[in-house]
Amino acid sequence: MPIERPNISQLQQLAGELHLQISESEAAEYLALMQPNLDAYDLIDGLSDEVPTVKYPREKGYRPEGEENSLNAWYYKSEVQGAQQGVLVGKTVVLKDNISLAEVPMMNGASSLEGHVPAFDATVVTRLLDAGATILGKATCEHFCLSGGSHTSEPAPVHNPWRKGHSAGGSSSGSAALVAAGEVDMAIGCDQGGSIRIPSAFCGTYGMKPTHGLVPYTGIMPIEATIDHAGPITANVKDNALMLEVMAGPDGLDPRQYISRGGSYIAELDKGVRGLKIGVVTEGFQLPNLQPQLAEKVRNAIARLESLGALVGEVSVPGHQLAAALWSPIGCEGLTMQMMHGNGMGFNWEGLYDVPLLDKHAGWRDSADTLSPSLKICMLIGQFGLKHYNGRYYAKAQNLARRARADYDRAFDDFDLLVMPTVPVTAPPLPQPNCSLTEYISKAFEMIGNTAALDVTGHPAMSVPCGLVDGLPVGMMLIGRHYAESTIYQAAAAFEASGNWQEM
Asked: So which residues are the signal peptide here (predicted)?
């Protein structure tokens, strides 16, 4: 079916949007010259898309309600049985609802995307199924993944399984809540500012943000390609390492994967920490909203690692605070360009595009007022930087990210791992539906002070539960060199084996 051709007045309007002035006669001449190019569009329109085939059948599924979804953590239930053999046979998995699962609805926490049904499975989904996992469905996530709190998801906030009425953390809120509640063994989360580690810290799960590019993001709705990460959320270290082994490695379709890496992580779990050098990052304990009791729990956990034979010392990483500041122009201008102006896909990269998702998400402009305030403020910051400063601060921030990364790398000259609190607070109460704009936005970003920096530098970082404060979990964040996830797992497994974290 031929695409619609513009007429003369439409072409003059398009020219105006490009700051051009053309006469009617010029427009007519341009139109005639454009026809061979538009014929190419016709050719493309008539061809079938190049997308992966769906390997495993799946149930039609449904959206659970009432007691079946008491935490609001499920978006959609649809069982997909994986291969009959593999390392994940018998393991159940839930997917964050920005991850494509063919023939199953995907909403990404936002009503404007409701009704979208992906046509293919994300690479990580296929890998899990090939390894024998059983996928049980999709977990609720925050509104286009732009919140560290769990109050921005539509149609209702996600509750913490440790205490209803409190935040489960975001943006992989349902993923961590369902693992912590024991409804699934494993979950996939995604992390651009802390969205795997924050809900893991709030809910008491193990959440790994791998090295940038280690896990393919193909088939997952992005926010900003340079800070997009996907990784496992589990109830124990072994499952986490096993899941990452299955998901890691290049797929040839994700431009984030500029180095071919994978790894065997299970082999590291029994090595212990004797002789391992762990640096306590001074800046990680300097957040203005750090709860003293939470900081004490993390320091007690570090002392426990030391009692197991680790060599512990303090270290300053000035790039930690720099990287946290760099997140604003990179995250806000980047998401405004890629996720909003670029309709979720953006431009200038080779790989697998989800064309129907692009078409569906383009409709955000028709209901922009319904976007969450946490997304709106990022868009306003991003648009301001793009319009008034031509993106120069995004560009400079990307340059300065190398300085922040180098500061971390210098710390790794002396230490094998770095450690700090994952988040500065335990899970706070969910804001009321009629709360102020200030409270709504503050509760979305008050906890990202330590986590966002590692999205900018790309280093792997894992939240490990290490105690309770007033009955709510505390997370300790272990940070490794690029592609040194195995060292993180080594320390996390030793800590896990040393005692019940809930009693520490």
From this structure: none
